Amino acid sequence: MHELSIVMSIVELASAQASHHDAAVIEEIELDIGCLSGIEMDSFDFAWKQAVKRTILENARRTVNRIEGRALCLDCNTDFTMEHLYDGCPNCGSHLSQIRSGKELKLRSLVLPD
Amino acid sequence: MCATCGCGPNSHHHDHSHDHTHETSPGKKVVDVEQDILLENNLLAQRNRGFFEGRNILAINLVSSPGSGKTSLLERTLTDLKGELGFAVIEGDQQTANDADRIHATGTKVTQINTGKGCHLDAHMVLHAVQGMKLQADSVLFIENVGNLVCPAMFDLGEQERVVVISVTEGEDKPIKYPDMFHSSTLCVINKTDLLPYVKFNVEKAKEYARKVNPRLEIIELSCTSGEGMDQWYEWLKSKVLQPV
Ligand SMILES: Nc1nc2c(ncn2[C@@H]2O[C@H](COP(=O)(O)OP(=O)(O)OP(=O)(O)O)[C@@H](O)[C@H]2O)c(=O)[nH]1
Ligand SMILES: [Mg+2]
Ligand SMILES: [Zn+2]
Ligand SMILES: [Zn+2]
Ligand SMILES: [Zn+2]
User: A2-111 architecture in CATH?
Assistant: First the structure.
C-alpha cells in the first residue's frame, strides 16, 4: 500500500504549509492525481481515512482532480488518450510514445482560515 | 522524516519569498502550493545518485513479486563474479534478515533495511544505509527491494538501473497487470527457465506484453538454478560497469 506513504507525505507537506501560515486547521485541500500515476483511488481513499486522523487535515474538504493520460506517438506524432501504460498508438499501433500528462501527483492548493 | 541528516521536509521549503496566497471569501485564504508530492523522495534520490556517480558506483534496484528469485540471482552473481567486480548489497525486507544472511554467506558486504509494515524502500532509507557502508569506488551496489510488484515502482532510490525479475511460475501477463514496474525498469529478467518444461508459460507472450508497456526494456531469460542464460546477464552487468565516467 504505497498509497499510505503518499498520503503521509501529503500530510507532512500540508502541515508544513499550515504552520508557515500560522494556521491551526486546513479547511480545504486540492490535489492533482494523474490516471497514470500509479495511484489506485480506492486504496488512496482508504489510506486517507486512516492517515489524516488526528492531523491538521482531519476535517479538510478534499478535491481530487484526476488528470487524463495523454501520450504522443514517437513514430507518427499522433496525440492520443492513454488509459493504460500498455496502450499503443490508435493511428499506427506503435508503442513508442512519450507521456504528456497523467503522471501528476501534486498538492495544488490549500484553503486556510485567514 | 528525521532530524539527524537535514533531510526532513521543512529543510526545503523555508524560502517563501514569493508566496502565492489570495483571499477567496472573507476569513479564508487560498495558498497555491503547486508541489510534487514525491519531491522529497526525488530530491533525496538525486542526492544518492550524485553520490554514486561521483564514485562510479553502479547502483541497481532489484524489484519483483515475492519469490521470483532476486536473492538467488544475487547469490549466484556474487559467487560467480567474485574477484572480477567489487560488490555490496542492501537488502530490503519487511521482517527478517534471511536474505541478508544468504548474501553474507557469499562473503559480500551487506546491509539490512527492515521496512516493517512498509512495502517498499525509499530514497531516505537508502541514503542512511549507504552512510554506514563505506562503499568502494568503481563497484556495484545491488539494492534488493521488498518483494512487491506495485509499491516500489513509484520510489526512485537514485539507482542507475532498475531490474525487474519475473519467473516462469508466474503468469505471463505480469507486465500488463503491473505496468508501472515494467514501465520504469530498464531490464527484465525472466527467471526459472529450467521449469519451462513443467509449467504453462508463454515466454514470447510475456516479452510481447513487456514491450508493449516499455519498448526500450531489455529482456534476458535465465535460470539461477541451472545457470542457463547467466552469461548474458553478466555481459549486461559488465557493459554497465565499464562505461567510462
Ligand atoms: N527452479 C528454480 N527455482 C528457483 C530459481 N531461482 C530461484 N528459485 C527458487 O525460488 C525461491 C525464491 O527465491 P528467492 O531468491 O528467495 O526469491 P526472492 O525474489 O528473493 O524472494 P523475496 O525476497 O521473498 O521477495 C527459492 O526457493 C529459490 O530456490 C530458478 O532459476 N529455478
Ligand atoms: Mg529475497
Ligand atoms: Zn504497498
Ligand atoms: Zn502512431
Ligand atoms: Zn534522514
Answer: 2-Layer Sandwich (3.30)
Kindly tell me the sign of the dihedral angle through the C-alpha atoms of B172, B218, A37, B12: positive
| Partner residue opposite B154 with nearest CB, options A16, A21, A38 | A38
Protein residues with C-beta less than 5 angstroms from the ion ligand 3 = A 1-2; B 119, 151
Type of residue numbered B219: I
Chain B: give the shortest CA distance to residue A1, in Å. Answer: 6
Q: Is residue B116 part of a domain?
A: yes
CA of B168 to the centre of ligand 1 (A): 11
Domain annotation covers residue B27: no
Contacts (Cβ under 8 Å, ≥6 apart) of A54 = none
Contact B29/A114, CB-based, under 8 Å? yes
Rounded CA separation A21/A17 (Å): 6
What is the model's pTM? 0.92
Q: Write the residue in B29, B183, B211 that is nearest to A112 by C-beta.
A: B29
Residue A68 sits at φ, ψ, to 5 deg, of: -65, 145
CATH number at residue B79: 3.40.50.300
Total number of domains in chain B: 1
Measure the CA–CA gap between B130 and B133, rounded to whole angstroms.
5
Q: Which residues of chain B are under the pLDDT cut of 70?
A: 1-19, 242-245
Residue B70: CB within 6 Å of ligand 1? yes
The reply to whether B34 falls in a domain is: no
Query: What distance in Å separates the CA atoms of residue A83 and residue B173, rounded to the nearest whole number?
Result: 17
Q: Please write down the HEC assignment for all residues of A19-53.
A: HHCCCCCCCEEEEEEECCCCCCHHHHHHHHHHHCC
Residue B227 covered by a domain: yes
ipTM for the predicted complex: 0.90
Express each pLDDT in A26-49 by its tens digit. 999 999 999 999 999 999 999 999
d(CA B145, CA B162): 10
What cell numbers appear for B138 in the block? 568503481
Q: Whose CA is nearest to atom 30 of ligand 1?
A: B192
- Contact between chains at A108 and B30 (C-beta distance less than 8 A): no
